[in-house]
Amino acid sequence: MKTTISTEWLSGCSGCHVALVDLHEKLLNLMDSVEFVRIPILMDEKGYPPADVGIIEGAIRSEHDREAAIALRKSVKTLIAFGTCAVYGGPSGIGWLYPPETILNSVYRNGPTTASGESLDATLPQLEQSVVPVNEVVTVDLHLPGCPPHPSWIATALGALHDPERHTLEQKTVCSQCERSMKKQTGVSLQTGQVHASDDELCFLSQGIVCLGSVTMERCQSPCPNRGIACAGCAGPSFDIIVEPHLDIRTMVARRMHMLTGIDQAEIDAYMEQEAKTYYAYTLASPVIYNKPGVKMKTWAAPEATGSP
Ligand code: SF4
Ligand code: SF4
Ligand code: SF4
Ligand 3 pocket test: which of 171, 172, 174 has the largest number of ligand atoms within 8 Å of its C-beta? Predict the structure, then answer.
């Protein structure tokens, strides 16, 4: 008997659903064992038919998102939070830093391409006070971060639901698939604002460039560092950061770069705090991160909103 799957998209970019379609012929193979009863990227379905598995993309940002998440949860036996927005808030999580009125004023009412003071259609679903990951609203059975998760991980996750003995979701970091080597270097200084490096074989950290690969769960096959760009951490934190309250993205990267280059750890810490909107871009709305001791996310990322210096 086929496993039935029902999907929904909330506040995200639809990229996670596109990744599902990107399974290409694997999707056809999968169709031997699964049946999509609801998948908005491929079919028009307004209701929530009963299904074995629910796949949900995007964060909870509006009243509509909340209602949709609850309705999907009620209609499925197992729910997968699919993609970094669903698991940690993702890029949509930037809205966690500001009150809804501030966002509406700057983006819509007084935006550069909208008429000044234009009022919003009152019939539209209202923004909630904040943006939260899906598991803050409904119970999630499996978290599959990634922006989007690589198709191979999607196939593995769906396979694991069907045959958990044969398919395991490993918890390695992006470094595990990176071809660069970490080596101690001397005479290196912190390269602020850099994502490219002169040496294609040496770890970015060894060259004084912040790379989040060592603190990021591998759900992508590490394309960025292998093609010359430092990892931005789009799949969210590594397993040790998730389970250990005292471990954080900034402190772990700063410590590792300090050990490789001798650059003052406090200098790296201060730089990453100053650029928190970049280095926590995918996770800042997640309590997994903002509840850590020593993480002052709103002070770092939006001092203008908090009144901090
Ligand atoms: S996780 Fe990334 S790809 Fe998926 S919806 Fe969010 S922004 Fe888009
Ligand atoms: S920190 Fe970045 S560059 Fe260094 S090994 Fe890990 S992924 Fe590769
Ligand atoms: S930014 Fe990092 S986690 Fe995201 S796709 Fe690139 S290597 Fe993977």
Answer: 174
Give ligand 2 pocket residues (Cβ under 6 A). Answer: 174-175, 178, 180, 182, 203-205, 211, 213-214, 225, 231
Residue 48 alpha carbon to ligand 3 centre in Å: 33
- Give the highest mean pLDDT range of 36-45, 115-124, 145-154, 270-279: 270-279
Please report which residue ranges of the chain form alpha helices under DSSP H.
15-21, 25-30, 63-75, 84-88, 100-104, 151-162, 223-226, 239-243, 249-261, 265-274, 276-279, 287-290, 297-301, 303-306
pLDDT tens profile 269-279: 999 999 999 99
The mean pLDDT value of the chain amounts to 91
Q: Which residues line ligand 3 (CB under 6 A)?
A: 147, 174, 216, 220, 222-224, 231-235
Q: Where are the alpha helices (DSSP H) in 76-185?
A: 84-88, 100-104, 151-162
- From residue 21, give the alpha-carbon distance in Å to each of 33, 94, 139, 210: 16, 27, 26, 33
Structural domains in the chain?
A: 3-162 (3.40.50.700), 174-306 (no CATH)
Tell me the pLDDT tens digit for each residue of 163-198: 777 767 788 999 999 999 999 999 999 999 999 999
Dist. CA 274–CA 150, nearest whole Å: 30
Task: Please tell me the distance between residue 216's alpha carbon and the centre of ligand 1 in angstroms.
Answer: 16
Name the 3-class secondary structure at 246: coil
Predicted local distance difference test score (pLDDT) of residue 307? 61
Contact between 80 and 56 under an 8 Å Cβ cutoff? The reply is: yes
> What is the CB < 6 Å shell around ligand 1?
12-13, 15-16, 57-58, 83-85, 90-91, 147-148
Distance 231 CA to ligand 3 centre (A): 5
